[in-house]
Amino acid sequence: MHSPTSRIALGGGCHWCTEGVFVSLRGVARVEQGWVSSTPPHDAFSEAVIVHYDPAIITAEDLIAVHLETHASTKAHGLRHRYRSAIYAFTPAEEVCFAEILKRLAPDFSAPLVTRVYPFAAFKPSLPEHQDYYRTDPDRPFCVRFIAPKLAALRKGRPGLF
């Protein structure tokens, strides 16, 4: 694989699920799992991942589309501050780009997206024993119930990404 030159941070509910999806994609070099915050007033940390990827193999638009398809991107969540549906941009230019991508993809969904683009402010990694959660034991009940079905649907709908 080429050296990754880009990264994107994504919040989509449980970071174990989000990590399990993105580590499986072609062009993704690594995924850091933990909590991300933005700038005030959205500075509460929420579960998220930072995806390091090679844009020559997979695009930011592909990653955002996968993100929207594999979590509740159209539903309010009772713990939305912790499980916020978000795309975090590392630069102002990315913030504009990601917002445009989100706008382009929105018509593909039957309900309005709750996903928002925020500026990235900080990251706190998960404990080491929680990193690479799906790959270390895909037979855990949580993995079988939540992550495996997402991956199966994604492989069926977007086989070119694997």
Largest sheet report = 6 strands, mixed
How much helix, percentage-wise, in residues?
25-40%
- The proportion of residues in beta strands is 15-25%
Please tally the β strands and state the result. 6
Give the integer mean of the pLDDT values. Answer: 92
Order of helices and strands: EHEEHEHEEHH
Distance between the termini: 13 Å
CATH architecture: 2-Layer Sandwich
Q: Give the domain tally.
A: 1
Number of helical runs? 5
- Indicate the CATH class: Alpha Beta
CATH topology: Peptide Methionine Sulfoxide Reductase, Chain A
Query: Structural class per helix/strand content?
Result: alpha+beta
Q: How does the SSE layout of this entry go?
A:
Elements (H helix, E strand, L loop, with lengths): L5 E7 L2 H8 L5 E10 L8 E8 L6 H10 L15 E5 L2 H14 L10 E4 L2 E4 L7 H4 L4 H17 L5
Parallel strand pairs: 4-5
Antiparallel strand pairs: 1-3, 1-4, 2-3, 2-6
Question: Could you describe the 3D structure shown?
Answer:
The protein is of the alpha+beta class. It has a single domain, classed as Peptide Methionine Sulfoxide Reductase, Chain A, CATH 3.30.1060.10. The chain contains five helices and six strands. It has a six-stranded mixed sheet with strand order 5-4-1-3-2-6, with helices on one face. A hairpin with an 8-residue loop joins strand 2 and strand 3. Helix 1 packs across helix 5 and helix 2 crosses helix 3. It is globular, with a radius of gyration of 15 Å.
